[in-house]
Write a structure and sequence with these properties.
Shape: globular
Strand content: 25-35%
Order of helices and strands: HEEEEEH
Strand order of the largest sheet: 1-2-3-4-5
Radius of gyration: 13 Å
Number of strands: 5
Helix content: 10-25%
Distance between the termini: 30 Å
């Protein structure tokens, strides 16, 4: 299954294609809460939630005093924009 062009808004991607894209980015799906994903990079780790209208990302222990930083990205953004925003880190 190939992904639509990267400038396509996420709301035009079927769920299996969004899940494939997350796996390609190194994310792992939670076995119980299937809408939750985790990703780890050398300098940060994050949890992602596929919410109804947006992807919510929480970068763990990266803020001041080790606080989490949470951001949300609407599905109306292109896959490229979300990829650059989420996977470049906090």
């Amino acid at each position: 299954m190939s992904l639509p062009p990267s400038d396509t808004p996420l709301y035009n991607h079927p769920l299996p294609q969004i899940e494939q894209w997350l796996r390609e980015q190194g994310c792992e799906q939670d076995e119980i809460q299937l809408h939750c994903w985790r990703v780890q990079r050398p300098s940060w780790q994050a949890e992602l939630w596929l919410d109804i209208e947006q992807i919510v990302v929480r970068y763990l222990n990266v803020g001041d005093n080790g606080q989490d930083i949470q951001r949300a990205f609407k599905y109306s953004l292109s896959r490229r924009d979300v990829e650059q925003a989420v996977f470049s880190g906090p």
